[in-house]
Amino acid sequence: MSERTTPVTADFWFDPMCPWAWMTSRWMLEVEKVRPVKVRWNVMSLSVLNENREELPEKYRTLMAEGWGPVRVAVAVDQAHGQEALARYYTAIGTRIHPGGEKDFTAAITGALADAELPAELAAAADSEEYDEALRASHSAGIDLVGQDVGTPVIAVPGADGERIAFFGPVVTPAPRGEAAARLWDGTLLVAATPGFYELKRTRTQGPVFD
């Protein structure tokens, strides 16, 4: 394990309804334990990303319409209570939606706020446009770093020259633990910092494994 020094900040953009972002976020929490890294949580939105795409299947279009609620509440939590509360909310709602299999986002939001010991009235943000400007700004901050043809998660870290390096993913299941998490982090930074490197991919043969 690397010797602990002042942690490097890794900005992590997520949408609570994405199972792959959830898997990557659990890995990042493990990385915090084994590398000098501190995660800073940011909200992005698949609903924003897909709002002008006419070719979406009807089922996915419905999901995108429902997806505004969890991210709006995430922004409200961050603004009212800060990073630590946002991390608690994400863990709580992600646990309900993904390992828990909760399909009703309204119920997931209400339950997650209670689980995270946050005020119940924050749930009202789900049906309000009050936080949309901040949501879009947070979303754009991540997408502008990594490019338009990706989804969630997005991670950004300082490169060797101080300029931020952003990448989509990694997409992994189950979330690696311990030294395996550290090795994946080291390798991810290595390829992300390689000039001209854009993509490394293979077909997914397994869905998210929630453990």
Map the helices and strands.
Elements: E1 8-14, H1 19-34, E2 37-43, H2 46-50, H3 58-66, H4 68-81, H5 83-97, H6 105-115, H7 132-146, E3 154-158, E4 164-168, H8 178-192
Parallel strand pairs: 1-2
Antiparallel strand pairs: 1-3, 3-4
Helix pairs in contact: 1-8, 4-5, 5-6
Structural write-up:
- This is DsbA family protein.
- It comes from Streptomyces bohaiensis.
- InterPro entries: Rv2466c-like, Thioredoxin-like_sf.
- The protein has about 210 residues and is an alpha+beta fold.
- It has eight helices and four strands.
- Strands 2-1-3-4 form a four-stranded mixed beta sheet, with helices on both faces.
- It is globular.
- The two termini are about 25 Å apart.
- The mean pLDDT is about 90.
Poorly predicted segments: none
Percent helix range: 40-55%
The biggest sheet, with number of strands, parallel, antiparallel or mixed sense and barrel status, is:
4 strands, mixed
Strand order of the largest sheet: 2-1-3-4
Overall pLDDT level: 92
Give the N-terminus to C-terminus distance in angstroms.
Answer: 23 Å
Helix vs. strand class: alpha+beta
Radius of gyration: 17 Å
Shape: globular
Write down the secondary-structure element order.
Answer: EHEHHHHHHEEH
| DSSP strand count | 4
Q: Tell me what portion of residues adopts beta-strand conformation.
A: 5-15%
- Helix count equals 8
Protein name: DsbA family protein
InterPro entries: Rv2466c-like, Thioredoxin-like_sf
